[in-house]
């Protein structure tokens, strides 16, 4: 059989040899990833995920990537543990197969949105209370992609000394756009009332009293607490940089600048416990205090020296705080000359129709027949366009994809305050 012969020919170079060959050639152009982590626990609700040198076959060979996750749970740890165990798989299953390296990286922002929403939806079905922040970082070559809900943060210091905020701040106290969204989706935002009319503490949403506007879990609070992540993707120069990912226990005590300055020159393994120590010394151990430090280094440089030869000029990238999150997408590549970190993608909208609409390469058209969130197969004609019910004529047509299954469509409407969420309708009568 000719097909058998062809099959044997393909196997003459074993996969392990191919992998080794690819990894050798990768070494020249890929950074070295060194990380450290530390945690000073108070409630035991912070969890981390550290996966380095994961390999995948891509159209043009083999590629490696690393994943770092921080999950700060509240009202118990079930949501944090569940997310740690399932989120990565849910994100990867939303990436079409057979993409080359560049396509894979470009597909990540959309796959992250699908993976976050699927994880939240699946966790809801377990009918457990608790919720979690998520700061999820994928490093592929010099490209860093960060998806976040909640108030754990990821900051980047480039080798040139610029500081970049790669995660969102979904605290109601500081995020007006999110307050507006929650109110328009049927939630209330206000401070804790002590009874005598005095209001105390940070802004919270009611029912539930959560200070955050986005999370995974929190099924007892309301669908307006959405799991749709803010996603930012940047490409570092070949000088590399340092990522610091911490829970709010650190950021309530230290600014990004102070945290980064405090560990200059230290290797990542020493920097992480140092930042935790600094935070606890500054404010005491009031919360779980967790830190992951990731150094993205040129291969020829020793891992102990993040270069800081000159007094760094702080380049603060504030665009993530701009009010209109819907206007951004693939931003053109004109950036400040001093700004050597290239911004590839930024989007924070809570609307699925704005987040799942990124065009895939034409070769993946078959994906039309899978739910864009949970990846179940949908029969032609049964999928519901993500644009269904949109009032903008001409921009998109209701028969345009991507499509959702009936169950994910219900979730989408509930998140936008349009539908009646299953749990609210079947819940209490208050
Ligand atoms: Zn679905």
From TrEMBL:
This is protein-serine/threonine phosphatase. Residues 27-296 form the PPM-type phosphatase domain. It holds the Pfam family PP2C. Coiled coil: none annotated. One of its GO terms (molecular function) is metal ion binding. SUPFAM superfamilies: PP2C-like. Keywords: Hydrolase, Magnesium, Manganese, Metal-binding, Protein phosphatase. It comes from Lupinus angustifolius. The keyword Magnesium applies.
């Amino acid at each position: 059989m000719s097909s058998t012969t062809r099959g044997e020919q393909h196997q003459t170079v074993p996969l392990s040899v191919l992998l080794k060959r690819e990894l050798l050639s990768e070494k020249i152009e890929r950074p070295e990833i060194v990380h450290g982590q530390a945690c000073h626990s108070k409630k035991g609700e912070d969890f981390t995920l550290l996966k380095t040198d994961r390999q995948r076959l891509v159209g043009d060979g083999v590629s490696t990537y690393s994943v770092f996750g921080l999950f700060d749970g509240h009202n118990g740890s079930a949501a944090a543990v569940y997310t740690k165990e399932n989120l990565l798989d849910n994100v990867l299953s939303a990436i079409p197969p057979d993409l080359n390296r560049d396509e894979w990286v470009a597909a990540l922002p959309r796959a992250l949105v699908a993976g976050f929403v699927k994880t939240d939806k699946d966790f809801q079905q377990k009918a457990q209370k608790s919720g979690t922040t998520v700061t999820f970082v994928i490093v592929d070559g010099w490209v860093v992609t960060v998806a976040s809900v909640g108030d754990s943060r990821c900051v980047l210091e480039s080798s040139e000394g610029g500081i970049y905020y790669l995660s969102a701040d979904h605290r109601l106290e500081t995020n007006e756009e999110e307050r507006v969204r929650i109110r328009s989706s049927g939630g209330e935002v206000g401070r804790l009332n002590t009874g005598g009319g005095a209001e105390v503490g940070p802004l919270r949403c009611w029912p539930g009293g959560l200070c955050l506007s986005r999370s995974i879990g929190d099924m007892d609070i309301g669908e307006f607490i959405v799991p749709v992540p803010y996603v930012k993707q940047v490409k570092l120069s070949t000088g590399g940089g340092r990522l610091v990912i911490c829970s709010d226990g650190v950021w309530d005590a230290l600014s990004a600048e102070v945290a980064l300055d405090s560990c200059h020159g230290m290797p990542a393994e020493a920097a992480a416990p140092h930042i935790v120590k600094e935070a606890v010394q500054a404010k005491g151990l009031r919360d779980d205090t967790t830190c992951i430090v990731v150094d993205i280094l040129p291969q020829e440089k020793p891992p102990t020296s993040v270069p800081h030869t000159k007094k760094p000029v702080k380049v603060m990238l504030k665009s993530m705080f701009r009010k209109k999150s819907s206007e951004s997408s693939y931003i053109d590549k004109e950036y400040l000359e001093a700004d050597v970190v290239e911004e590839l993608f930024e989007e924070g909208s809570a609307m699925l129709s704005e987040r799942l609409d990124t065009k895939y390469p034409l070769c993946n058209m078959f994906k039309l027949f899978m739910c864009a969130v949970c990846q179940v197969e949908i029969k032609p004609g049964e999928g519901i366009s993500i644009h269904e019910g949109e009032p903008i004529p001409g921009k998109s047509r209701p028969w345009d994809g991507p499509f959702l299954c009936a169950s994910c469509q219900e979730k989408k409407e509930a998140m936008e305050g349009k539908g009646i969420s299953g749990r609210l309708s079947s819940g209490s009568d208050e």
